[in-house]
Inverse folding.
């Protein structure tokens, strides 16, 4: 039995943040009704175009992952008849999710104060760019800016100071914030069942980005300088280019324990492997030693193929991998790993195209591994049924 | 005001920051959380701040405070039967058990799901792993830089210069994100357990969560989209530029032609303002012209400060911002923004150091914006009281 099968969620959302929250609820069994504006509906229906993916009603892989299984109702909320349907749905819902800005909600009469007065048990989950207060609260809230750019994630992640800022994996801020909102809404539901009181829960892109990067960022307050470069980072905690043009990558927190295995796998000269300047934790912290180590490791890494080096390091228990590209999750051992854990499920569209689609990465023992694929509904596909159910 | 999870009792056996974040949020939402550590050193991440030159004492441990503030701390050597008895006495009364111990270790301790579920049928168990439950990678060490970032392509495919080194992923970001996904599942299971009386085992992995939050980008690979992007092939008005003062200005827009003159004003491109190779969006679809223009703008950006350029862009309503570094969240309008929304609180340690600590970024209307510093407890600080409560 799915954990949330008795719940009803109404969402008025676009982009991927509150949309992801809605998708989690759906994947955990809730009934989710998504409200869109006719005729085009959520503009993210068309986002796949940017990456040369189909965006048809019968094949829209990007949209499927965020909106699969949701009932789709197209409502013109300026039309009182349609607003009546909306309110009838909300009156029966446990949760209302939205990414509409506060001003827009007030104009529609769908703001928290109005809804709470009418439906005291309702939980409202809201996503904003920058939170409810402060000098930036009305700024536009794209995840590339509010989650990544504003929190330093596009420049302090560079390893070549002065290089171009990284390309934000846009959507990552949305999905992370959507996960956060799901947590808040679920806690509020728990509380509602104890107290009978509804709740307004809000998460912002900016606040979530700040939280998830707090460990490294807080060090700045004690004078730690970001970004790092190859020579002031741990020599064993960075990537090295190998003979085949791929990168070997490791992250070693316990230098002294893993140096013997690491240096042996690379084939470093015996005297260097034993030299305390490189073998000891304190020795490798000295800038001159670090520089020498990085330069030497660079030279030796180029003598082997990445896969060969990786296997040797792995045998020595070094936390490492060959650096993957986004595409690498769709083939080989990584694909096998994903599919066997239900992170990806294979789906063949009517076009004959077979793709791997991501699923909610939460395993429930009571559910086991399941193919959670559900197609996304077309704009207004469920209008007739919804009007019948909620029209009066 | 009652907190949403008041009355819930959580036992935590964790290290690092993933399952730890899950338990921290449970505490912040009102649950009672008892954290078990192994004496005498306790959790290895108590000492993590040293890497950044931060204090790691019982009185001042800023990173550890953010992940563990307010939890009760019980030091137990679980290989001793009398201590295991205390552990079981707690689990018998707990609603949730959160752990990051590997399967093998749990089995050895008799704290694996099968054993616990048989004894405590209502208990919800939340578990974080590196790579999931099955598959070829399942026994590899799980570290967020590797399992969350590198294995999912984020370390390589976010670069905008193919010759630049792999990025330095934001440390802990994979952990905190995975901890939230786990919490989403745990709360879903808790909700269900209250209705059905049946607990559940909920698990997520660093790898699976990293995979999920990057679907917006990776999915295009199914249809042949090539990553990474390169600065020189990206839109000249859709990327960041490094300026004379080392800061970056970032532009993100689609209406190239409309903003061309403002763009020329800002970057000092008078000499090419009317050059047909660059002055329209259509022209820059020619990749050679595009590369020439990006190179030229990169050079010109270095002649002015970021603020000078940004002022001109802003005056012309060009969608843009200055790219922050991690440290920039701790001063000026970004600090103000964070404090106004309770994303950070100000705290002065006994040393006199004044710092800003990041808090759970979920806003509950019933709680308001909260500013509540809680220090992390010392190893075994609560042993006496807890042994009294759960010893028999």
């Amino acid at each position: 039995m799915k954990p949330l099968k008795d719940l009803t969620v109404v969402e008025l959302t676009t982009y991927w943040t509150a949309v992801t929250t809605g998708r989690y609820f759906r994947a955990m069994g809730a009934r989710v009704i998504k409200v869109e504006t006719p005729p085009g509906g959520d503009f993210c229906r068309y986002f796949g175009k940017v990456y040369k993916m189909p965006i048809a009603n019968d094949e829209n892989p990007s949209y499927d992952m965020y909106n699969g299984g949701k009932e789709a109702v197209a409502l013109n909320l300026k039309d009182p008849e349609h607003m009546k349907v909306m309110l009838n749905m909300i009156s029966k819902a446990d949760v209302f999710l939205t990414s509409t800005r506060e001003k827009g909600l007030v104009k529609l009469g769908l703001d928290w104060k109005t809804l709470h007065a009418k439906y005291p048990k309702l939980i409202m989950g809201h996503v904003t760019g920058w939170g409810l207060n402060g000098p930036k609260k009305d700024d536009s809230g794209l995840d590339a800016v509010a989650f990544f750019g504003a929190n330093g994630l596009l420049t302090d992640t560079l390893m070549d100071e002065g290089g171009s800022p990284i390309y934000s994996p846009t959507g990552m801020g949305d999905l992370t914030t959507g996960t956060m909102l799901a947590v808040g809404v679920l806690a509020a539901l728990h509380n509602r069942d104890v107290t009978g009181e509804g709740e307004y829960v809000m998460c912002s892109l900016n606040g979530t980005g700040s939280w998830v990067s707090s460990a490294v960022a807080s060090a700045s307050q004690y004078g730690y300088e970001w970004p790092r470069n190859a020579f002031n980072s741990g020599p064993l905690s960075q990537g090295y280019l190998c003979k085949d043009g791929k990168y070997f990558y490791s992250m070693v927190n316990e230098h002294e324990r893993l140096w013997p295995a690491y240096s042996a796998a690379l084939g470093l000269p015996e005297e260097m492997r034993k030299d305390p300047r490189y073998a000891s934790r304190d020795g490798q912290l000295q800038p001159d030693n670090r520089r020498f180590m990085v330069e030497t490791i660079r030279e030796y890494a180029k003598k082997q193929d990445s896969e060969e080096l990786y296997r040797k390091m792995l045998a020595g228990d070094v936390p490492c991998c060959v650096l993957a590209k986004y595409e690498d999750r769709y083939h080989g051992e990584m694909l096998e790993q994903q599919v066997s854990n239900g992170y990806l499920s294979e789906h063949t569209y009517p076009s004959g195209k077979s793709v791997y689609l991501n699923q909610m990465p939460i395993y429930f023992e009571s559910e086991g591994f399941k193919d959670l694929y559900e197609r996304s509904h077309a704009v207004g596909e469920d209008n007739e049924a919804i009007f019948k159910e909620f029209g009066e | 005001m009652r907190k949403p999870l008041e009355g819930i009792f959580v036992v935590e056996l964790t290290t690092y920051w993933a399952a730890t974040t899950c338990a921290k949020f449970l505490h912040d939402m009102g649950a009672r959380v008892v954290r078990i550590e192994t004496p005498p050193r306790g959790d290895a991440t108590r000492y993590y701040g040293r890497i950044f030159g931060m204090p790691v004492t019982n009185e001042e441990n800023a990173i550890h405070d953010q992940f563990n503030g307010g939890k009760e701390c019980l030091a137990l050597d679980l290989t001793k039967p009398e201590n295991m008895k205390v552990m079981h006495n707690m689990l018998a009364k707990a609603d949730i058990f959160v752990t990051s111990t590997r399967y093998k270790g749990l089995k050895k301790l008799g704290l694996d799901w099968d054993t616990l579920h048989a004894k405590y049928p209502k208990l919800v168990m939340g578990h974080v792993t590196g790579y999931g439950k099955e598959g070829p990678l399942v026994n590899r060490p799980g570290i967020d830089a590797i399992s969350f970032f590198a294995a999912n392509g984020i370390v390589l495919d976010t670069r905008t210069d193919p010759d630049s080194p792999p990025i330095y992923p934001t440390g802990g970001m994979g952990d905190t994100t995975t901890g939230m996904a786990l919490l989403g599942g745990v709360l879903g299971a808790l909700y269900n357990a209250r209705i059905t009386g049946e607990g559940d085992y909920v698990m997520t992995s660093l790898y699976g969560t990293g995979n999920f939050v990057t679907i917006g980008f990776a999915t295009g690979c199914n249809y042949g989209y090539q990553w990474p992007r390169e600065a020189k092939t990206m839109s000249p008005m859709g990327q960041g530029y490094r300026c004379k003062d080392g800061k970056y200005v970032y532009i993100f827009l689609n209406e190239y032609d409309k903003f061309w003159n403002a763009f020329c004003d800002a970057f000092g491109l008078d000499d090419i303002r009317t050059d047909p190779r660059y002055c329209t969006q259509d022209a820059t679809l020619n990749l050679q012209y595009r590369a020439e223009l990006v190179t030229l703008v990169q050079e010109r950006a270095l002649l002015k400060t970021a603020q000078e350029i940004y002022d001109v862009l802003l005056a012309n309503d060009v969608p843009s911002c200055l790219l922050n570094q991690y440290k920039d969240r701790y001063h000026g309008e970004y600090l103000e923004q964070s404090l106004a929304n309770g994303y950070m609180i100000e705290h002065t340690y006994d040393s006199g150091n004044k710092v800003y600590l990041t808090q759970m970024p979920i806003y509950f209307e019933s709680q308001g914006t909260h500013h509540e510093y809680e220090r992390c407890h010392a190893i075994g600080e609560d042993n006496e009281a807890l042994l009294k409560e759960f010893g028999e």
